Amino acid sequence: MGFTLHNITEGIGIAAPILKVRPPLWVFGCLTLLAGGPAVVGMWIGSLAYAPHWSALALAIGGGAILQVIVEVGLYLMRADGRGSTAIVSLPVFSGLAAGVGFMYLTAMLVKI
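Structure (tokenized):
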């Protein structure tokens, strides 16, 4: 469920800061449905038809998608900042990474196996 919620908002969260013109709110609603709709449908289908090999395939695709987002956003930051690779090893980037990993482990402690 958390992975699905993350993916629904991911596209807008990445695209919104780089827009030059502010579109109307309904456009963001349509983009949310376009970006998140397949994730919701996939979650519903996956919850009804569980098999270990399909689960492994879906997790592999999801992991690859997250890796691609990390690479693309990292490259964008290096180009946009003008500092090259030093933009990736800056204090704000490491602080955000540490906060994200910390939050991930804190929320993981709430899940009982």
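The mean pLDDT is 77. The chain has four helices and no strands.
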